[in-house]
Amino acid sequence: MGGGEDGGSCNLLQVLFEGAVAGGAAGAVVETALYPIDTIKTRLQAARGGGKIQWKGLYAGLGGNIVGVLPASAIFVGVYEPAKRKLLELLPENLSAIAHLTAGAIGGAASSLIRVPTEVVKQRIQMSEFKTAPDAVRLIVAKEGIKGLYAGYGSFLLRDLPFDAIQFCIYEQLQIGYRVAAKRDLKDAENAIIGAFAGAITGALTTPLDVMKTRLMIQGHANQYRGFVDCAQTILREEGAGAFLKGIEPRVLWIGIGGSIFFGVLEKTKSILAQRSSRRNARLKL
């Protein structure tokens, strides 16, 4: 009995470790490749009325952002993979979508403690308010306190928990359906195409939440909005319903391409780690 529990714990730890490594690698690659599109999206969403956007400094803040994205992505996938495995064991096969949705939300909640400050700093640099991540962190804390790094935390969760849950659920369910239809494991390119599809759909659906999250995060100590509901009401009253779709084109493009790269790198890294683990276990048995 004890041996079985130890084996199960070791397997979960291995899944967590492999997921963390794969997630960190995938997150860093996506962020580096697509950062300029994200910067354009942020500036479009922040522009009020017919305001123009800056086209300079599209890579501003990338280094500091990678420092946050690596651990955040590692935590997300490191929590998602064992949570998914455990939920799939507990739930009947026809409820696998519930397992994927729930695991995605759990992973998003766990990683939010790092993702939110990273996002706040990144977007304030993208808006040319600060030049470097260390300066941004120091000045935000000095002027607004630690809570300044968590500006828009509620709206971030409201956007990202559904986003993470929906994106990973669509991806996993499409994978299952494709695998059943093709009667084989998916190739790298197929994983990437499914990832792009899942990312683009989810990105479009969550754009209104992303607009509000951006406005709340970049407002600083000015406190234009008193919260999520006030932000929504103010945008609707002053700019109209169309403002909630600001930046949808670069967002769908960014997340679609990002989904392709993220899931492609994720699956490839997981495959490489699994192969190494198998070889190591085989050597230990000799």
Q: What is this structure's SSE topology?
A:
Layout: H1 2-46, H2 62-90, H3 96-126, H4 133-144, H5 153-182, H6 188-205, H7 207-218, H8 228-239, H9 248-285
Helix pairs in contact: 1-2, 1-9, 2-3, 3-5, 5-6, 5-7, 6-9, 7-8
Provide structural commentary.
Keywords: Chloroplast, Membrane, Plastid, Repeat, S-adenosyl-L-methionine, Transit peptide, Transmembrane, Transmembrane helix, Transport. InterPro entries: MCP, MCP_dom_sf, MCP_transmembrane. Belongs to the mitochondrial carrier (TC 2.A.29) family. By secondary structure, the chain is mainly alpha-helical. Among the domains are: 48-150, no CATH class; 153-245, no CATH class. It has helices at 2-46, 62-90, 96-126, 133-144, 153-182, 188-205, 207-218, 228-239, 248-285. The protein is globular, with a radius of gyration of 20 Å. Residues 1-5 have low confidence and may be disordered.
What would a concise description of this structure say?
The chain is 79% helix and 0% strand.
Task: Describe the structure using short key phrases.
286 residues, disordered N terminus, globular, transmembrane, chloroplast
